[in-house]
Each structure stands twice: as structure tokens, then as C-alpha cells.
Write a structure and sequence with these properties.
Four copies of one chain form a homotetramer.
Chain A lengths: L3 E6 L4 H10 L5 E8 L8 H4 L10 H4 L4 E2 L8 E4 L3 H13 L3 E4 L24 H9 L4 E4 L3 H17 L1 E10 L11 H4 L10 H12 L2 E3 L2 E3 L4 E8 L6 E9 L5 H10 L3 H4 L10 E4 L7 H4 L8 E8 L5 E7 L3 H17 L5
Parallel strand pairs in A: 1-2, 1-4, 2-3, 4-5, 5-6, 7-10, 12-13
Antiparallel strand pairs in A: 7-11, 8-9, 11-14, 13-14
Helix pairs in contact in A: 1-12, 6-8, 6-12
Chain lengths: 349, 349, 349, 349
């Protein structure tokens, strides 16, 4: 199969670097365009980029010249790692010009005609694409992935929702520094400390699951009805968001049933054998002290969510710990998986 | 007033060091005896101790010779910082021999005739002392303080319980390294990491508040009825446990009422002006990103609890963050405040 | 004695905050003016400042209105915590207008007529003030303090220089995050890491001691002749620069002589009993594993240098570890001590 | 080629785990025996081991039963990761019984008839094996690898020694937590701190290079004559020792010559294409702020040394920073490379 040429918008930032890294040896996609702000345009990728993620930048991109974020890139599909403030109009311009945009930005997440997609959870929301194109008279379209802390929460709880229904979720996050981008949180602020606040994060975490778990009715998503409460914290870890979760179910379940639901969970990306889909979307650890950010974030190449300490909750029904790699599954890897689903379902036709 | 001679059991360990430090200039108490394990007995304090807490060891104790933990110490009151496995019988021997024991160990916390005391919360539980002495035919008696994470939770929520009643608490802790003693958690395990498990901690946190908030009926404590769920984590902070708390109240309250209840809270130790009682047991911060362990743990000399981010909870009723100094209010300082209450109430007569 | 009104230039930054904190209860000086960039001018100190240093900002300054850095402040003496790029002309304007400027900035450190002052080391360099005023036709004048890592190195080695002469110094620094200001080094860069490079730092450390140890001959400083080699590193500590030093002496010395010289060192600030002068400028620790940044940086209120591990060096003559509080002795505290010396010597006339 | 059966002594500790990990897919060796202390013997590897190094333990070893450290293991070659206190007599017993022992322990490093081997540096010291066997009347023999901080220092400076001669070395180390084993340094001791002392480390670093660089004359190593001074520090990094080095050469060199010597260095392991030999034993980085422990330790699979910041030294001749992976090249990987050299040179015949 000839590879599909793809571009990266915002290629020099931290999430852009993850796109570059994860796409370097992708079996379906080939990076043919790197775009960034006017300040970087015209420079080579090596010149314009302070590489901050693990490993070295792939040789193949080092000499590529960065272009402006205008919809004249030599590709059909673009991944967007643009900062929230700029992503909105740029992504729209690309979609209008016929590009397929797989975005990691938050700008269009809540648009009623834009899918907020986790391939294992709501692949049927791709039905919105037709609505989006028609309403906006676009050749292309936009698909978004959820906030990092949302993605891993919703993915890990999806089997419980399917099997038993979910009434309420209380989630406390301990989020890694990379979630704030680069330079992000000053070393002086976080060394030997925890910061119990991440601007806008609790709102996203309380809102996004309702859309993702909503039902596509005609041209609209009817939001799921459940209560979600989030406390978000920044801790001194590099990658990997840890979440302490209590959940109330609609139907009674036994502990073994809960664990079996988590462990046995497979979904459309696994059936389709999408290249970035982890064999096991949810890995359940039995040790009492797992998951841990530094030890478990690489599970499934950073695309699995690791769950541990499943036990009864005296206030809601069940409690557990879950961990996801925030810059892989929670950002670039998630957007790539979305694009793989689009291709497999014929949307890149 | 002549100072009351006091001893410290387990004086060489980390909590023992905090007793030494906090008692060095105490207006009522004077350290006249230091006791520890057989391995240390006979050495000077300077020889036997690897000082690991902030600051330098007080000059006055450096030359004192450490004694065995036998009930022949030259004092009437002893503070116990003994490890859980050894504390039980030693504390009993001291109480039987007529000593007043103010303990930080967990051995006797759940004995039905031993007060589990937070002076701002349940000073009337001192009524158990008479029962304890009679039943056990002891001249002295034992009073215990609660687990560090319990103490700050119960103290911070006490004004809400008084004003509105508490139905349920969901608490997620991010606990400091000092809570594990010394050497405690290996650097290799915690650097850039979070460990989502502290052995025995969740059980303590779900159990102790029910006794502390219980009602003394005749010779027994009738445990409080409420649901408590705890998730406990170790994070890379030195001192200061942070807790993300959601709470369901029995009666409706407005946000201003909740905050006012917290801010206005004063209790018996403040009225009695006990030396270690903070002027404000609960300090409410209004900034969006407080309390933080490194910045707020010293509030009230480490004896206040700092609360922040009070807001509505979509699952229970209210959520907030609270922080306490685990080795001061949550350990040595708490036991000293207990002893001060005993003295003020005539129990050291 | 009536207190002398002083101003702080660059009062909102990290070093500015240290000036505010250290001057809050100063026996000789009283802060009557706070100045900062145009962006902050007109706001109260509380509004304009993100307080990042330990403790809370002093109540007294919170409501003070910040002024522009123009030489119309209600004081005679100003402390400058201005960033290097801006300090030069502003400090000159103040000095020309008659203000005494005690600066922590590097702009004028190497001017031949500006003292680069460490009161224990080269108080006689104040003789340059007369030269400076005459040459520049200024009413006021500028005095500077050295770079943080220089100050503690030169102060610690001064007794060895006096007693035995110094031929060469090899110094490797492990410098705290606060040395880079705020926000400074990103958490992502330094967590679990060491950065073996601090822009400009090695040049300062190899150059400044030669001026400080130079001899005032007529109107000029004849630089000291010695070889200095520096390797500078940023490590994950908050405050306190650690330096591993090897030194070659001009005259032979015995270990006890070296240690005695360090321990017995007292100088003019101690004789004059300047308020910020530590009783012991150099504290020698005998434990094998000291000094440590977190445990020793507060020595002498952050104004002492702590030395340990003095031993023979197989390559040069002696080696030792030394530690100083970079934002106290190495910045704000150093500039305050300079001003105290000026006052005591009649330069604030 | 049929794989050679090998055993691991001290297989459950941290270095033992690295042997297990690095040998899991080795092309020449196959682990057929795991041995450890009496406490572990009889248990499976999974039961006896708290896996603390990155990644998961290889499936193949999990069910293997641990044996006692007696010389009855089903293999001819054993790798020793035994603690120093126990290694001496056990390794001797194995060598006496005919085993080849490739040791990471320090017990026999300084024995005059035991090679202290770095394959790129002194492969000719294998000539001592014959001496050792004859003198001790052993069928087998012992080969040791150097201390972690020594190995990377000597390897990095070897091309300079060959090209220009070395008169003196001043080295300051910033060593990772893993160098102290597990549990090693308490989190409380190292968080936000540097410890300027590692027991015994400076002695090793000042002594071992002289033997490694010594000349095999007849039956003895004539130690190299040069001056070495070491200051050793523990810092809050996980893996990767950083060393700031100044070096005095015997012959003059230009900067380009120094860099070329480092970059062009290849030695016997590269010629023999030993499986664990990195293609480039020394990697020179040109960026001003490299090498960094977290970013550069994996270079060459952890078997290369990374050098940066090569520049003139005002006190000695040249200065540079160098970094090595202490538990790979500096421990298990080094001992494996030693064994590969033994095999290639016919010593396992």
C-alpha cells in the first residue's frame, strides 16, 4: 500500500514532536509537511525545534522546511497540535479547503457537529461528519480527540458502562508535567510540591465524557446523563496521568465481573487491527501498588490504559486507580488512532 | 509555674525527633527522659540519633543518655513515638505503673476505653479515662492521637459536621515521604513517580473518624454513622499531606455558609489558649491554586489545617482541598496538644 | 536611630521579593519605595506580584503602590534587583541623581571604578567610590555585589588566601533552581536530571574573583593573579548552591591549619556588628556528608557559607565542599550587607 | 551457534535484574541458572524478586527456581552481582571449581592477578588469567569490571591517553540513585537535595584507573603514574552518572585534535563486533547543554559514554562533561562485554 501523505500543524511544540515521533515509522501515513507559526516558517525542523520529548528527533524530518499553517500543504490529512487559541480558525480553513483534520486541540471539541472521538468508545459518532460537511459546506472535515485526562478515564470505564451502566464518577487526578506543554510548570513551583489546580481541566473532565458517551440521534448527540466530579492536580512526574476514581453503577456487579469486564474489553480498533490500537486497551494489574506513572505509562506503546486496585467503595460502588500516557494515548497517539479509524472506515477515500 | 518533667519513648526515630524539637522550648513541659530500643540505650542522644528532620537537634538533649523503655523514667508523663509493633505492651506497662501516656502509635487507638483524641473535636472523650483506669486497674492511662491523614481530615470537616451534619466523605490523599518515617520510601521508587498505595492507610482513614466523631454514651463510644471512602497515595513531597475531599452534608448549605463555618471555627484548645493550639485551627485560602504542601504546611506552626478551593461537587455536595503538616499536627504536635488539654483539664493532677 | 528610607528597583521579581522579605524588619532600613517595570507601575505590590519565595509577603508592603524606575523615589538608597538587560542605564540614572545604588545586577560589576564588594573580603575597595563620583560627576554612586556562585566561593576561600595565598582554583558547581529566577528552568527539564550548563556563569565565576581579590592601587584595581576553572551545573534543588572545590595554595599548610583558618575567620562586618553579618561567616561541618543544600542553606540566616569535607587533593593541594544560600548571601542579603557597610563607613552621610 | 549456558549469582538484586534483562535475548549466552542468598533459594524468580528496574521481568525467567550460590550450577560461566561483603569467597569457590566468573563486585578488583577489565582499554590484561590459574591452582578464573564511575571516566579518556598522554585528572561526579542499589538512598534524604559523599567511591575512582591503565609486565601490572582527584556526589537522578572532568595532558593538543580523538575512537570490541559493544564507544555532543542524564544515558543501548562541552581548562589543560549509564555500561553490561571478549579470545574454550 502506498503511504498516505500527512501534515502536522504546530509541529515544533511538544505535542507536535510526539506526532513527528509516532509517525516516523507509521505503516499507513508518511509525513510530507510540517507547519508551524510564522516565527518558525522557512527554517528547517532542526533549526526551529527544541526537542524536549524522549529520544532523538527522527533523521528524516530534520532537514524538512517548516511551512506556514496555510491550507496549501502537500497532503490530504493534517494532524493538529496547534495551541487552543489559534487552532479554531486554522483548522476551519483547512477543513473548508478539503483537508481532513484530526485535531488534538480543544477549539472544536464541543461543536455539536464535530465528533469527539475515542475509537474504542464511540466510533459511530463519525456519523456527524456528514452533518458537519453539509452544514458548513466543507469539502473536508474536523475530528477531535478528547482532553488527555478525559480520554483515559472514559476508555477505562467504557466496559463498565456497557456492562452495568454508570450513574456517577468522582475522579481525582495527579497529572504529569508534560500535560502543561513546554516550558510549562516551573521547576521551582513543582519540586517537592503538588499544585491542586489546573486551569480549565476540571471543566473539561466534567463535560467531555457526557458528549463522548452521548447517543447520536439524527443529526445530534444527546448527551449522556451522569454526574461527574473532578479534582485536578499537577504532580512532579514527567509523563502519565494517574487518576483515583470512584464510580456508581446503574446495575449491581460482583468484583470478578467488574475485573472481567475491564480485562476482556476489546472494541472496533482491535477488530480492525488498526496499527496504533493496543492489543489490550485496558490492562489490569493485580499488585497492590500499581499502576505507577513511571512504571506503567509505556504499556501498549503508551496506548493502553492501566487499571489497578479495583475494590469496593463505601461511598459510591467501586473504586480503582487508572493511568494513561497523556502525550501518547491522551494526545498525539489518540489523534493518530482517530485517523486510522477514518481511513479504515473509508473517510479518507 | 514549674515545668512538668516529661519523657519521650522512641526518642531517636523521626517522630521522636519531632517531639524533641517541639518540646525544646515548651512553656509547660520539660524533657527529662529519653528512651529508645535496647540498641540505643546507654548512648548519648547525639550518638544514637541520625537527625533527619529540619534544623539542628537542640543542644540541651545532645548529651542526655538514652534509657530503656522501662517504666522507671524520671517523669510523670510520657510521649510515645514507638513503632506500632512494639508500642502496645510498653505503653500498657507505663500506664499500669502510673504514667500518663500520650501516644502517637496506633496500637491502642481502637481500644474501646482509650480516647482517640483531637482536642478541637472530641475533648469530651476524655471521659473514657475514668473507665479505662477502673477496668484495667491502672494508676496511669493512655490517650492516643489519630493517624496523620485522619487528623487533618476530621479537624477540617468538624465545623461542617457541627453546622450541617456529614453523610459521606470521599477523600483522595497525596501524602508526603515523612509519613513513612526514615528511611521510608526509597528515592528510586518515588522520584518522578506516584505510588497509589500506602499499606493500612485507607483502613485507618475509613475507620478512625467514626470513633472520633462518635458519642460517649455511658462507658462507650457509639460510633458515628457516615460513609467514608479513601484512596491513599505517596507523592514526592517532604512534609504535608494534601487531601482532595468531597463531602455530602445532612442539611443544605450555601457556599458562604460553608466557608464561614470553616473560617470562624474555634474550639476548646483556642478558648483554653493551650500553648500548641493554633489561633486559627482552619485557615481558608482564596487563591485558586492553594493549599500547596511546600508553601502552606507551616501555617500555625504546622498545627493549622489549610483549606482551599471550596466549591460545589456534582456528585456529593461540596468539594475542597485540605493540607496538614503530617509530622507536626499529624503526629508529635498532635500528641503534645493532647497532653496540654490533659493538663488544662486536671488529668495530670 | 531613625530608620533610613530605602527603595527597591525590580521589587516584584524573585530577588526583589527577597529584598522585601529581608528588609521587612531591618533595624536600620525601612522600605519606602517599590519600583518595577511599566507593566507593574501603578498597581499595589499585592496585585503586581506573584510571590514565589518561602513564607508570605510582609503585610506592610502589600498595599504599597509600585512606582516606575525613575530617580524620583522618596529615599536616598536604592537596592537594585533589576534584570541585567535593563539595570545598566537605570542604575546610572539613579546614581547621577544622587542616589546610592546597592546593586545585585551584573551590568556594572566589571566597570573599573565600581566596587565589586564582599564586605568580609575587600571593604577597602570602597575607595573606588570617590573615583567613580569624580570621573562620572555623580552625586550618588553604585556599589555591586558579585554573582551568587562567586560570592560564596570567594568568601569561603578568603581565609586561605590571607593565610597561605591561592595559586589556582578548580570549582564545579551544582546550582539551585532559584538561581535562574522565576519561572526559570522548566520542571520538565530538571526533574530527575542535571543540566551541565548555565549560560554566562562559568565566565563570571572565572572572572569576578580576580577583581574582588585585586589590589586597589591609586584609582584602579590591579587584578589578582590566579588560575580559576569552573564547570557549572543546574540541579533539582530549590535554594543553595553547592560547590566542589580544589585549590592550590602558594604556601604549604597542614590540614589543621586549613580548618583553623576557615573556622576562625572573622572580618570587618563581624567587628562592626553589621545587622546582616553572620557571627561566623564560615561554618565548618565535620560530618562526612555535609554540607547539603536542603539542610545547611539556612546557616547564619542564609548569610554564612558552610564548608565540609576538607581534605588533601591529589591534583591541587586541598579539596572541600562549600555551600551558600544563593538568593540570600548570593543576592539580596549580600547587597543589604554591602549597604550596611556603606552606612557604617559613613558613605550614606 | 549453540548458546553458552550461563548463571547469575545475586540474581534478585538490582544489578542481578540488569543481568537478567540484558541477557534475555543475548545471541551468545543463555541463562540456565539463577542463584541468590539462602533466603531466596527454592523460590521461583517471580516470588523472590521485587523487580525495580525499567520494564517488566522477562517471561522466561519468572518460573525458574533460584538456587544457592554453590558451585554446582548447570553452566560454565557465571556473572556475579553479589554484594561486596559476600562476593569474595563465593567467587573464589566458583573459580576453584572450574567456573569462569565475570564479576561486578569489588572484592577481587585489586588482586594483582585478577584483570580489572574494560575491553576497549586493556584487553591485554587478560594475560593475567594464566598467572591467576597457576598461582591459585584453579581450573576456572575471575575477571572483574571496574566501579561504575571509573568505567565511564577511563573509557572516555582512553583516546586522550593514547594520543597525548595523561598527567592528571580532576573529576567531580553527580551520581544517580541506582548506583546505591535498592532500596539505597531514602527519598527523604535526596528530594530537593545533593549529598556530597558516597562512602568508598572517591577511593575507588582515584585507585582503579591506575591499575586499568597499568602495563602488564611479566606477571604483574605496573600501575600507571598519574594524579587523580575525585569529589563524589549523589543527586536526584535515576540512572546515569554525570562527571565534570578536567584533565592535564602530557603533550600539547589542539581542540579539534582532542574532539577528533574522542569521536574517532574504536577499539578491539568494535573490531571483534562483540554483541554488546556499541558502534561508537564515545559519542560527542556539540550542544552547549549536553550530556544530560535523563536524555543521554540510553546512547548505544547504555553502552556508550557521551561526552560534551569539550573546552580549554584554565587550571589543567582541558575540561569536559561525560555521562555513562551506571547500571548498564557501569555494571551488568560491562561484565557481559567482558565475557564476550573472553569468548571471542578463546578463554571460554
Amino acid at each position: 500500500m502506498e503511504k498516505i501523505p500527512v501534515g502536522i500543524l504546530g509541529a515544533t511544540g511538544m505535542v507536535g514532536q510526539w506526532f513527528v515521533k509516532l509517525l516516523a515509522h507509521h505503516p499507513w501515513f508518511e509525513v510530507t509537511a510540517l507547519a508551524a507559526s510564522a516565527r518558525s516558517a522557512g527554517k528547517t525542523y532542526a533549526e526551529a525545534t527544541t526537542w524536549v520529548i524522549p529520544g532523538e528527533p527522527p533523521e528524516a524530518v530534520q532537514g524538512m522546511v517548516i511551512e506556514a499553517c496555510d491550507p496549501h500543504l502537500p497532503c490530504r490529512l493534517v494532524f493538529s497540535a496547534l495551541p487552543g487559541a489559534e487552532a479554531g480558525p486554522i483548522e476551519e480553513a483547512f477543513a473548508a479547503a478539503g483537508y481532513v483534520v484530526s485535531s488534538n486541540a480543544s477549539s472544536h471539541r464541543y461543536d455539536p457537529d464535530v465528533p469527539l472521538l475515542i475509537p474504542e468508545v464511540n466510533p459511530d459518532h463519525l456519523g456527524l461528519i456528514e452533518v458537519q460537511r453539509r452544514r458548513r459546506r466543507w469539502q473536508g472535515f474536523i475530528v477531535t480527540c478528547a482532553n488527555c485526562s478525559t480520554t483515559q478515564l472514559v476508555l477505562a470505564l467504557e466496559p463498565l458502562r456497557r456492562a452495568f451502566g454508570i450513574r456517577a464518577i468522582s475522579v481525582v487526578t495527579m497529572q504529569a508535567l508534560s500535560g502543561a506543554g513546554y516550558p510549562g510548570v516551573p521547576g521551582l513551583s513543582i519540586l517537592g510540591n503538588v499544585i491542586p489546580y489546573i486551569p480549565g481541566e476540571e471543566e473539561k473532565l466534567e463535560r467531555e465524557p457526557k458528549k463522548i458517551w452521548g447517543v447520536l440521534q439524527g443529526e445530534e448527540i444527546a448527551e449522556a446523563e451522569l454526574a461527574i466530579s473532578a479534582h485536578c492536580h499537577r504532580v512532579a512526574t514527567r509523563d502519565g496521568h494517574l487518576e483515583a476514581v470512584s464510580v456508581a453503577l446503574e446495575r449491581e456487579a460482583a468484583l470478578e465481573e467488574v475485573i472481567a469486564a475491564l480485562e476482556d474489553f476489546r472494541s472496533l480498533p482491535q477488530e480492525l487491527e488498526l496499527p496504533s490500537a493496543p492489543a489490550r486497551p485496558i490492562v489490569v494489574r493485580k499488585e497492590p501498588d500499581r499502576p505507577q506513572p513511571r512504571r506503567d505509562r509505556e504499556e501498549g506503546g503508551g496506548m493502553s490504559v492501566v487499571v489497578g486496585r479495583v475494590r469496593a467503595c463505601p461511598v459510591l460502588d467501586w473504586k480503582l486507580e487508572l493511568l494513561g500516557h497523556n502525550t501518547v494515548r491522551g494526545a498525539a497517539g489518540g489523534a493518530i488512532l482517530n485517523a486510522e479509524l477514518l481511513l479504515a472506515q473509508g473517510y479518507l477515500g
